[in-house]
Amino acid sequence: MGQAQITRGALYLLFVATGLSLVYLVSNEEVRRDLAYWLGASGTTVWGEWRLWQVLTSPLLETSFVSLLFQGFALWMFLPALERWWGMKRFLLFALYTSVAGVVAGTLCGWALGGTYGLHFVTGLDPFVFSGIVAYGILFSTQQVQFFGVLPMTGKQLCFGIIGFVALFILVGQAWVDGAALAASMLLAWAMVSDRFAPRLWLLKAKQRRLRRRRGHLQVVEDKRPGDKKRWMN
User: For domain 8-198, which architecture applies?
Assistant: First the structure.
């Protein structure tokens, strides 16, 4: 339990998501419907009605109490290790990127399939939580963990177990919208942790290329002004 202390960034996410989700869960049907319509993202609302802000608000609204408990458990037990490794800024950016990727992929899938799939809401921090567990399995592959305090396993085993659970959940329940959201976020997590998705590195490389092009126009010439010493100019 000494290493299970929640970090500041994870606490911020937990506080905001839990607060908004509990407001939804304890409200009446009319308030729930309005909150889901304005804050929750679906294929119809995002791509049919162009409520693009829902890509950012939907991860903070969880409509299932069981999912909210699981997300809180992961934010308390596993995900703070990522923030200690990366720092709060990169941790929160990881949460932003994976959450947005999940919502975009899920709503696009629902919009493409149409029918009831287009009305299915992609809400909550599940894309971030599952992608965070994937990142944990890559960074701490040999770290011993106690899943729910009773099942010992390594970080790598936890990662593969979660991927298998997600695949089984999608196939049995034919939850293609949720499956697209989770798959996109977990693939992005793998790319980010393995440095295949590194926007900052791409910007630095682009800056280096510009500097090389500028240096190509420079040359050293002799200063012809009168004097005893030879001087040179760039």
Answer: Up-down Bundle (1.20)
